[in-house]
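Tip: read the tokens left to right.
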């Protein structure tokens, strides 16, 4: 794992949260994107070298909706940048971690993503992110 790619925060109201985080970080969001397959709308902020992803549910049965219902707003996941997501998934499976998806899937911000089950990572949902290379 190369670095923390971003921290994901589950929010009930993306528009209101964008206003709050713009005040907090002193910068506007740079991208809003919907990932229909996951039932989520995202907004990204950059603060120095760090990124924050706000996540709002777009469907009542989406993972974010379920998270908000169970735990409320707050940190949802920590994402790590990886060079080769398939190799990293294989390595982590070999170390005994439970990878929640068999193959990487298209996520927000031009990334392939995979998640590790939080039961094996001290309650933290871990996301692996690989930049999708053009061409």
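Filled-in amino acids:
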């Amino acid at each position: 794992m190369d670095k923390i790619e971003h921290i994901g925060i589950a929010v009930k109201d993306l528009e209101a949260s964008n206003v709050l985080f713009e005040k907090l970080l002193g910068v506007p969001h740079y991208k809003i994107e919907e990932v229909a397959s996951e039932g989520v709308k995202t907004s990204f902020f950059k603060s120095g070298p760090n990124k924050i992803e706000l996540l709002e549910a777009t469907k009542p049965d989406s993972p974010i909706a379920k998270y908000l219902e169970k735990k409320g707003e707050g940190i949802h996941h920590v994402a790590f940048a990886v060079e080769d997501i398939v190799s990293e998934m294989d390595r982590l499976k070999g170390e005994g971690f439970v990878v929640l998806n068999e193959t990487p899937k298209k996520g927000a911000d031009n990334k392939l993503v995979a998640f590790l089950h939080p039961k094996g990572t001290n309650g933290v949902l871990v996301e692996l992110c690989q930049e999708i290379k053009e061409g």
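The CA atoms of residues 56 and 89 lie 27 Å apart. Strands lie at 3-10, 31-35, 40-47, 50-57, 74-81, 105-106, 111-116, 126-131.
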